[in-house]
Amino acid sequence: MNKDVLLGNHVSIGKTNDVSANLTAEDKDRTLSPKNTESKTSVDQTSGSSPSLPLLSVILAMDSVTRVKTLLKRIRLLEAANTVTRDDCMWLFALCATVDTPLYADTCAALRSLLRRCASIRAGKVALDDEVIMMNILATISGRYFGQSEN
Q1: Cis previous bond, 102, omega within 30
Q2: 79-125 pLDDT, tens per residue?
Q3: Distance CA 8, CA 25 (A)
Q4: Which among 31, 33, 37 is positioned nearest to 53, based on CA atoms?
Q5: Cα 11 from Cα 4, distance rounded (Å)
Q6: 110, 68 Cβ separation under 8 angstroms
Q7: Are 9 and 31 in contact (CB under 8 A)?
Q8: Which of 76, 100, 105, 113 is the most exposed place for a label (fewest CB within 10 A)?
Q9: Which run of H or of E encompasses 47?
Q10: Given this model, what pLDDT does residue 45 score?
Q11: Cα 91 from Cα 88, distance rounded (Å)
């Protein structure tokens, strides 16, 4: 029997051939262990329960209400932050990709606030770097795909 199964360090979504089965034991421990503080981002340190990367098995294990709540929580935490890490952007992208439509009013308002925050972070940048590219992607998702842009 696998060590991770015995220790409960895996996420099961009801299939025997899920994505987490392809990970090594070390990868599972690193991404799913709440004790790992080295790789956690600022958002992960405040939430404490989510892994540092949005694994497919973790996202699929959530129901639609949990996905929306997690998206709203991550957007609220981004509003208070000065910078956005790659992990934060990956979580926001993954949650936006899996959120069910049509959206509720509070979800639309949160996505509108994400668009405003992305625009304000982009405005403060002089050079084109990875953070600007991430802000452009998130602004396009919230503005164009979810229809939160002004025009």
Answers
A1: yes
A2: 998 888 999 999 999 999 999 888 899 999 999 999 999 999 999 98
A3: 11
A4: 31
A5: 10
A6: no
A7: no
A8: 105
A9: helix 42-47
A10: 40
A11: 5
**Cα distance between residue 23 and residue 10, in whole Å:** 10
How confident is the model over 44-59, as a mean pLDDT? 68
Radius of gyration of the chain (CA): 17
CA distance 70 to 68: 5
Asked whether residue 8 carries a pLDDT value surpassing 70, the answer given is no
* Cα–Cα distance, 108 to 101 (Å, whole number): 10
Inter-CA distances, 127 with 14, 84, 123, 124, Å:
46, 16, 10, 10
For the residues 8-21, what does the mean pLDDT come to?
41
pTM beyond 0.70, yes or no: no
Query: 50, 55, 45, 70: which is closest to 19 by C-alpha?
Result: 55
The CA distance from 22 to 68, in Å, is: 27
**Tokens coding 82:** 């000065």
Read off the pLDDT band of 36 (50, 70, 90).
very low
Give the three-state DSSP class for 35: coil
